[in-house]
Amino acid sequence: MELAIDGCASPMGVYEVARRQRIPERFLEQIFGDLRRSGILESRRGAHGGFCFAVSPEEITVLDVVECLDGEVRPARCSAGGTCYITEAPLCATSEIWDEARVALENVFGRYTIAQIAAKERETRVTRAEKAESETADAGAEDAETGVEPWAEPSLTR
Q1: Which residue of 115, 119, 138, 141 could cross-link 58, Cys pair, CB 3.0 to 4.6 Å?
Q2: CATH 1.10.10.10 for the 1-55 domain, yes or no
Q3: For every residue of 22-39, which 3-state class applies, written as one string?
């Protein structure tokens, strides 16, 4: 997500993305490797190297990423034409439910693009920053009203 939020103006290193997302760098390297092999990301070497999108984030759905990392969406082994758990049974009683769940997941994951999620996250971060700024200003105003300087140590009086 960080690549899309940043707009991928220039490639971003795994270390920076891992730091921002607070996830282990090794874990992220594996994910980025899978996304690169699938053609979603590309990597660039060198001092200003890193990862960026190989395809526009507007064209990449959550379903694309999920299927790249986890394989085909199949909530149960028998969904999407897999083998039923019950041997010699044409279809188990729940296979239609699992198929319906698979279709629903594909529809939801396929409806959202990485660009849409990044735009929403950008808005959320701006709102959070504005709120934090406002709270800091409010705290400063309260200190000014009470005459207490926030950096001053409390005096001991008896």
Answers
A1: 115
A2: yes
A3: CCCHHHHHHHHHHHHHCC
